[in-house]
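Could you show me some protein's one-letter sequence and the numbers that encode its backbone in two labelled lines?

___
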Amino acid sequence: MNDNNKEQQGLQLELPQDVAQGEYANFAIITHSSSDFIIDFARVLPGVPKAPIKSRVILAPEHAKRLLAALQENIIRYEKEYGPIRIPSQQEPISPFDLPQGEA
């Protein structure tokens, strides 16, 4: 075990009450510079022309790559338990809502 693993095992995380509720996001925009990756999470709602950014996470490139690996590992575990995650084809409109069309 290296020193980094020893330090991480002793790390205690605190989840403040106001953060514990989380923020629902169904849209993310990722940008980067030479030193940072920026992920903006937004909530897109039907009939609302603006999607407010609910959270911004700024990561060093090394941490962005670690996040990618952690997400991949968790997606593999999820699909083993619940089945494949379906992603719409390019021809299908990407919408976070599967709502019927309204009629008057």
